[in-house]
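hey so u asked for the seq, here:
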Amino acid sequence: MAERFHLKGVEWVRVRKAGRRVFVMVSFFEDPGESLQGMDQVRQAVIDDVVRLDLDADVVVIFRPAPAAAEAPDPGQPPPAVAAT
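ran it, structure tokens below
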């Protein structure tokens, strides 16, 4: 997905199941030059792809600025906690 839409990369993906529902959260590193309309197209494409696989899926897509090379997350570490809303 990141390559298809020329994003800077995937920061993390979380998937959990509760009964028949599947909850998916994905965080992409955004290109600072990307428009809001472009990010909305990515968000909708991710939701469509996941729902095509599981109609009971609940999908949240997050965009964050790509960190500087010195701040890049360690891929061996778990993703940061996300506050529930």
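Helices lie at 36-53. The CA atoms of residues 26 and 85 lie 16 Å apart.
lmk if thats what u needed
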